[in-house]
Design goal:
Layout (H helix, E strand, L loop, with lengths): L1 H13 L1 H49 L1
Length: 65
C-alpha cells in the first residue's frame, strides 16, 4: 500500500495532470523496450530462416545438376 500512498502524495503535491503524464510516459517507455526486444528476436529468426533457405536452395541446385 506504500505505492498508493506515494501516488496520492504526488497527486496532491504536483497535481493529477502531471502525475498522469509521467505515468503515461513510463508505460510508453516500457512498451517501447518490450517492442525492441521482440523485434530483435524477430530479426534473429528471419536471419536464421534466410540461412536455412539458402542452404536448401544450394542443396536443391546440387541435386538438379
Amino acid at each position: 500500500m506504500e505505492n498508493v500512498q506515494d501516488i496520492m502524495t504526488a497527486i496532491s503535491t504536483v497535481g493529477f495532470p502531471i502525475v498522469a503524464c509521467v505515468v503515461m510516459y513510463y508505460i510508453n517507455w516500457k512498451t517501447q523496450q518490450m517492442h525492441k526486444e521482440e523485434m530483435t528476436k524477430v530479426t534473429e529468426t528471419i536471419h536464421n530462416n534466410t540461412i536455412a533457405l539458402t542452404k536448401l536452395v544450394d542443396k536443391l541446385e546440387e541435386n538438379n545438376k
